[in-house]
Model the fold of this input.
Amino acid sequence: MPLARISVPAHLPQSQVIALADAVHDALVATCDVPPKDRFQLISRFAQGSMIIDPTFPDVIRTADASIVEITFLAGRDDHKKRLLYRVIVDKCVAAGFRADDILIALTENQPMDWSLGGGLAYGAHPPTSHV
Done:
């Protein structure tokens, strides 16, 4: 179960923000075996001057459209899947009008016990449900 926090500058059009959110989710499904309905995203918009992002570290050129994607998910993906995830997110973002250097991605992995999906129960403790 991934949780994506997407931080964008306030001036970005809503359509571009949604395209970024879609790119993140679609890439997780395509590269990391995430179920299509497993979509949990928090999008935050920041006023000018509220995102402090170095414009050139390390050897990139970022613009005022620079955005940060933080993904927390269960441990277990190998480096190949993570590299592919980065590439697919950025490729989809470029197709939506972003520059490749404007998408910064940070992954954090944890264990099932670090999640509760509701009801005060640890991840995996929920009884199976059927959705008709």
